[in-house]
User: Fold this.
Amino acid sequence: MRAIVQRVSSASVTVNSEVVSSIAEGFMVLVGLGTDDTHEDMELIAQKILNLKAFPDPNTGAQWKATVVDRGGELLCVSQFTLFAKIIKNKPDFHKAMPAESSKSMYTTFLERMGTLYDPLKIKDGRFGAMMSVALTNEGPVTFTLDSREVPGTASTGTSTPTASASASKGREGADKLAQRNAEKALRRAAWEAAKREKDGVEVANSNEAQQSATN
Assistant:
């Protein structure tokens, strides 16, 4: 499960020229569900959003000290299946996004869970499956990307994003490939320098021979 969280001073959703939802200070949240997401992923993302310290302390003004709950802010959530797009030959492929029927049920449960954890009146929604116009004023700008599969200890695993161990493995593979490229580059450099020295030596020898011939 993925979420794009933006800190806003205001946000709204319009469908067919009608404003169907709006908030003042809080979070604008785009929510994407993958084919293998479970309730564990949903719970994790809900907790992460509500506990994210994205706001300044209301008393001291110190940054990154307060959550949306601390500020009494609102949340406007919009379902966004395109967060699971894979670009193939410049064309988006959505096979990793959860099908509409299943995602609608889980998305609704996600909103209910957010309301239970915080305040149902503070959780706003767009219109699932509709063509929506989303307007917002991003304060900062401040934007965060959350992914349930990037957190160590997540119960579920799948293809949405690499698990922590898979990410570490890819990191090691990347480091090994970089080291190999650097070694190959060093060998090519050494070969080039050796060839240059040999060429320079031949040119010097030819020059000496030419000078001796001219003297004789």
